């Protein structure tokens, strides 16, 4: 059977194929979406760039003791990953007041937070990804010890990546992680790319905010490539 025959999930920006037990192939598409899929565009080369940034970040995390689902590269747009049993949540970590945090707290846009802020959201297009507290998480079946571990891994990831981005001349504003279980261990899954982190270069975005703001595909891919180039330089 061809790989394409084994699609287990197709999302807005990625396709997952089943190759063998316990493993998946994650293909990054060239699409970019915002506003829950209402804004949509194809940007040639974007899938390859996001897969490379994800590989760099996940390899860096692994090297520093943070477990992710990344196994190896398969081709330009495809990574081999461990098949996780995903938690239905998104975990956001923030260093700078921006985005939806400005609707919750009386902070100045761009202000440094005095400590990282972690937020949990329920992954549901239907409900509009609502924010969750720890009681909501318990109802969803995420235990206190799992929450504690997920928070710890998120904070460690933040410390490692803040430094990596700083070395690359970038400011890591915020990011989103997803987690899943593999043989009773909790690992980081999904991707880590400018689609799901905010980074600033001299206080200007080099991430999906450019697309959200209505910039064209040339500007967006140029920014994503700049992030890749800078990260490649600091990890090699
Ligand atoms: P927010 O400020 O819009 O809540 O976003 C915080 C960070 O989380 C930002 O880096 C973008 C990322 N994010 C996602 O990757 N997926 C999402 O569905 C949302 C809401 C945010």
Strand order of the largest sheet: 11-10-9-12-15-16
The proportion of strand residues reads: 25-35%
Which whole number gives the mean pLDDT?
A: 96
Structural class, judged by helices and strands?
Answer: alpha+beta
Please report the number of helical segments. Answer: 5
The helix fraction, in percent, is 25-40%
Task: State the shape.
Answer: globular
Keywords:
alpha+beta, 34% strand, 236 residues, five-stranded antiparallel β-sheet, binds thymidine-5'-phosphate
Commentary on this structure:
- The protein is globular, with a radius of gyration of 17 Å.
- The protein has helices at residues 46-63, 134-139, 144-167, 209-212, 217-235; strands spanning 7-10, 14-20, 23-28, 31-34, 39-42, 70-75, 78-82, 85-86, 89-96, 112-122, 131-132, 171-177, 179-182, 185-188, 197-201, 204-205.
- Helix 1 (46-63) packs parallel to helix 5.
- The protein has 236 residues and is of the alpha+beta class.
- It has a six-stranded antiparallel β-sheet. It has a five-stranded antiparallel β-sheet with strand order 1-2-3-7-6. Strands 8-13-14 form a three-stranded antiparallel β-sheet, covered by helices on one side.
- It is 30% helix and 34% strand.
- The model has no long low-confidence stretch (mean pLDDT 96).
- The structure holds thymidine-5'-phosphate (TMP).
- Residues 90, 92, 99-101, 129, 174-176, 196-198 line the site of thymidine-5'-phosphate.
- Thymidine-5'-phosphate (TMP) binds at residues 90, 92, 99-101, 129, 174-176, 196-198.
């Amino acid at each position: 059977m061809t790989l394409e025959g084994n699609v287990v999930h197709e999302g807005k920006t990625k396709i997952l194929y089943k190759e063998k037990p316990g493993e998946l192939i994650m293909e990054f598409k060239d699409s970019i979406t915002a506003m829950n899929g209402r804004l949509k565009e194809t940007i040639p080369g974007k899938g390859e760039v996001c897969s490379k940034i994800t590989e760099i970040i996940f390899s860096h995390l692994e090297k520093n003791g943070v477990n992710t689902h990344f196994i190896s590269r398969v081709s330009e747009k495809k990574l081999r990953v461990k098949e996780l049993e995903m938690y239905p949540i998104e975990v956001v970590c923030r260093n700078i007041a921006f985005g939806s945090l400005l609707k919750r707290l009386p902070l100045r846009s761009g202000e440094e937070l005095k400590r990282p802020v972690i937020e949990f959201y329920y992954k549901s297009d239907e409900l509009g990804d609502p924010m969750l507290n720890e009681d909501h998480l318990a109802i969803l079946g995420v235990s206190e010890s799992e929450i504690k571990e997920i928070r710890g891994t998120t904070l460690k990831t933040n410390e490692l990546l803040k430094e990596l981005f700083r070395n690359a001349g970038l400011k890591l504003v915020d990011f989103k992680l997803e987690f899943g279980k593999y043989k009773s261990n909790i690992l980081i899954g999904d991707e880590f790319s400018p689609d799901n982190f905010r980074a600033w270069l001299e206080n200007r975005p080099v991430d999906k905010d450019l697309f959200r703001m209505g910039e064209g595909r040339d500007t967006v891919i140029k920014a994503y490539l700049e992030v890749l180039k800078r990260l490649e330089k600091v990890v090699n």
